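Sequence, please.
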């Protein structure tokens, strides 16, 4: 497992069309090596190709034109047409590459090309469900959660009846209505668990890790509470061992370096880490960055190191609003400095560097034209050229607490600061995460430095000469405009 790695998510079906300019059909192995080399130059260690598995086109007409979904299509793509709707990539038929993306050999060739560059390939593991139209429903019905006639009569949104009269549950998150295009896996059935574990072991041959969609839903307590009205009491006996403990252990017995990333919420991140996940989503940090409370962000970063280094830090992904929309340009840049320079996995989404603003529903196979923001693109190129250095990957991270620069000054509370140290090298990151000009002092140990020493702001290409005695006794004086940042080298 890399130290503090970076991962880049790609909405594969859209992205491949973009390369072909909608005129030529490309496969995954047709992507030019120069594209991957550019990501490598940005310090990207993992590429997550989201949405590569075979879906069921016949399900689109049945399940993808609900009123709420169509409202989402119209918000994102005003001139959308029915043929633009291609279905959710998480309602899969089977774990085979979708034919529109190429063949199994194309996937292996892509993985080989990435691995040669030192980039590892991450793919989806859809934890909770398959497509309601999956061929597995007929040939392996026991994989799925069966229900009663009463369940069906009482709730025809959550339960459905097949053509041969069997009743099953749709997949669901307990806080939202069921996903109509899915069928729920029964994690109380040992045969279903074995099938999913065998699937994971097979995936070790075609990728280097998995991002586990809604990993929390397979936890015993969550599953039992979600389906309390369906499962029988004696079935609960089958779920004493946690699925993830079995799955991760057995998969890593086959391939120890295989990476597990959990989409996780509800304060269950630590539990998933203890069950073997290498990384878990840190949605709390995202929410705190959006809320803008510097105190809460600082407190969040006080969590113990073992938790932090396994946290996935992100501003946007396919489920979240685009950061340019959610944060605005200046605050998104400040937030980007934060997620790129703290411990854990740094996560970026295709289009983030260019400043895309439209959150696209996953069912759409076409995206609106959005012009790249050249200033933001330059900013990310600069930031990532700095943070790909080894000190940000393997250094020792120290959180600082800025202090007031003079009596009565309260603006120091708007500033976040931390330091990376490795082999005598130092990087000091300072972010004014507010809409006010703010000042502070930061105490750093410069006892080994000459009385006059140079500190270089790598982010803004500035050099400063400072007194080591003043910095050591009073602290380094900082003044930053709203949402501006320093990354100092000294």
């Amino acid at each position: 497992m890399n130290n503090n790695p970076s991962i880049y998510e790609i909405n594969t079906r859209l992205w491949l069309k973009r390369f072909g300019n909608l005129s030529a059909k490309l496969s995954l192995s047709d992507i030019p090596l120069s594209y991957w080399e550019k990501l490598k130059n940005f310090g990207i260690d993992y590429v997550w190709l989201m949405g590569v598995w075979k879906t069921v086109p016949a399900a689109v007409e049945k399940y993808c034109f609900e009123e709420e979904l169509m409202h989402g299509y119209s918000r994102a793509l005003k001139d959308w047409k029915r043929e633009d709707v291609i279905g959710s990539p998480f309602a899969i038929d089977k774990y085979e590459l979708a034919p529109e993306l190429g063949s199994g050999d194309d996937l292996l060739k892509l993985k080989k090309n990435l691995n040669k560059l030192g980039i590892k390939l991450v793919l989806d593991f859809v934890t909770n469900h398959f497509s309601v139209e999956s061929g597995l429903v007929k040939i392996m019905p026991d994989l799925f959660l069966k229900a009663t006639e009463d369940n069906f009569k009482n709730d025809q949104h959550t339960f459905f009846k097949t053509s041969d009269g069997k009743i099953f549950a749709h997949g669901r998150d307990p806080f939202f209505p069921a996903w109509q295009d899915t069928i729920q896996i029964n994690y109380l059935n040992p045969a279903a668990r074995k099938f999913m574990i065998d699937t994971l072991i097979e995936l070790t041959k075609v990728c280097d890790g998995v991002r586990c969609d809604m990993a929390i839903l397979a936890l015993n307590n969550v599953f039992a509470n979600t389906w309390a009205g369906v499962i029988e009491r004696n079935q609960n006996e089958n779920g004493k061992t946690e699925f993830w403990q079995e799955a991760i252990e057995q998969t890593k017995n086959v391939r120890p370096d295989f990476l597990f990333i959990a989409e996780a919420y509800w304060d269950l991140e630590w539990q998933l880490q203890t069950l073997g996940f290498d990384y878990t989503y840190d949605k709390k940090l995202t929410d705190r960055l959006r809320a803008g409370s510097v105190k809460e962000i600082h407190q969040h970063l006080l969590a113990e190191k073992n938790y932090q280094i396994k946290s996935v830090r992100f501003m946007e992904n396919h489920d979240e609003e685009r950061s340019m929309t959610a944060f605005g340009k200046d605050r998104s840049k400040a937030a980007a400095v934060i997620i790129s320079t703290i411990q854990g996995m740094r996560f970026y989404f295709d289009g983030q560097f260019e400043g895309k603003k439209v959150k696209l529903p996953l069912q759409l196979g076409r995206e609106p034209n959005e012009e790249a923001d050249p200033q933001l693109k330059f900013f990310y190129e600069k930031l990532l050229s700095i943070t790909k250095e080894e000190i940000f990957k393997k250094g020792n991270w120290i959180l600082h607490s800025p202090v007031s620069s003079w009596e009565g000054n309260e603006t120091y509370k708007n500033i976040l600061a931390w330091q990376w140290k490795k082999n005598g090298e130092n990087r000091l990151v300072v972010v004014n995460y507010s809409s006010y000009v703010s000042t502070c002092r930061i105490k750093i140990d410069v006892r080994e430095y000459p009385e006059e020493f140079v500190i270089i702001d790598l982010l803004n290409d500035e050099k400063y000469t400072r007194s080591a005695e003043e910095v050591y006794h009073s602290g380094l004086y900082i003044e930053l405009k709203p949402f501006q940042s320093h990354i100092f080298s000294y």
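DSSP finds 19 helices and 22 strands in the chain.
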